[in-house]
Amino acid sequence: MLAYIVRRLLYAIPILIGVNVITFALFFVVNSPDDMARMQLGVKRVMPEAVEKWKAERGYDQPLFWNGAAAGLDKATETIFFKKSVRMFVFDFGRADDGRDISREISTRMGPSLAVAVPVFILGLFVTISFALLLVYFRASYLDTAGVVLCVGLMSISALFYIIGGQWLVSKVWHLVPISGYGEGLTVAKFLVLPVAVGVIGGIGAGTRWYRTIFLEEIGKDYVRTARAKGLSERLLLFRHVLRNALIPILTGVVVVIPALFTGNLLIESFFGIPGLGSYTIEAINAQDFAIVRSMVFIGSVLYIIGLLLTDISYALVDPRIRFQ
User: Fold this and answer.
1) What are the pLDDT digits (tens) for 287-316?
2) Phi/psi zone of residue 94: left (φ > 0), alpha (ψ -120 to 50 degrees), beta?
3) Of 300, 279, 311, 317, which is closest to residue 108 (Cα–Cα)?
4) Mean pLDDT computed over 167-195
5) What is the predicted pLDDT for the residue at 294?
6) Which of the four pLDDT bands, split at 50, 70 and 90, describes residue 81?
7) Closest CA to 86 of 168, 169, 24
8) Domain ranges of the chain
9) What is the 3-state secondary structure (H, E, C) of the chain?
10) In CATH, which superfamily holds the domain spanning 102-318?
11) Each residue's pLDDT tens digit, 257-289
12) Which of 32, 51, 97, 119 sits at 20 to 30 Å (Cα–Cα) from 213?
């Protein structure tokens, strides 16, 4: 197991380098350092001297990938890519183009992101699995058909509809919770109720159909028919055998949302005014702040790789037949 973990971690290094290269290339295809300087300086007519000064202060005055004027290894190291990317591997994200420390901003904003994402994740998982088990229990009945139709309908509706509709109905019409914002201490609860509810409801359709498909596949296997022939009730059959043996595909689906727990939900945080990492990323994209965008992409990649590794390890815990070489 230890050798497998070390090998997977070593595989992650070229993956992260590739993510950095692709992110860097895509960003600078759209924007040049001169464009970034003009946007940050915030005036229509900027003197060339001001642009060059801004670039020099932030390290954008060098070539992107290859410095032909340098000698030896400096051809590769005296570049924007090398100087901006290498230190990220020790989680030193430097400063944003507006001068703020990125690591401090991330540590400050991670709390609000987790305050929304963790309840959405836990409640959403409980609701979708429970609803899927209910539909499987009443499979091939009118209730099952109605549930599938409802899930398809929920999947077909844009996430923006849930957000805007929830704000209008719950906040504007019923005046139950604030329409947006974020508080401190216990007062934060009233700001989180609506975003969490929207996040859970928005994921019910896709999540329920996914888990229903998994449970229906399991319930047709030989061990289920054997257990049923021995007189085990359908309720115990679902919760004791089907749910347990479906843990591997469930874990596979869960790993996809792990990065979002830390990096935040872009739409929910932006529309509800939550100062988390999702809104931080949106603000950076609007401001064309490459330092922040690159840092958030890097963090998301690291978290996704860690999630895949944890998922592989958890496979061995839930299924003794799996062994890593």
Assistant:
1) 888 889 889 989 988 888 888 888 777 777
2) left
3) 279
4) 91
5) 87
6) confident
7) 24
8) 2-90, 102-318
9) CHHHHHHHHHHHHHHHHHHHHHHHHHHHHHCCHHHHHHHHHCCCCCCHHHHHHHHHHHCCCCCCCCCCCCCCCHHHHCCHHHHHHHHHHHCCCCECCCCCEHHHHHHHHHHHHHHHHHHHHHHHHHHHHHHHHHHHHCCCCHHHHHHHHHHHHHHHCCHHHHHHHHHHHHHHHCCCCCCCCCCCHHHHHHHHHHHHHHHHHHHHHHHHHHHHHHHHHHHCCHHHHHHHHCCCCHHHHHHHHHHHHCHHHHHHHHHCCHHHHHHCCHHHHHHCCCCCHHHHHHHHHHCCCHHHHHHHHHHHHHHHHHHHHHHHHHHHHHCCCCCCC
10) MetI-like (1.10.3720.10)
11) 777 788 778 889 999 999 999 889 888 888 888
12) 119
Which residue is listed with tokens 């994209």? 285
The pTM of the full predicted model, rounded to 2 decimals, is 0.84
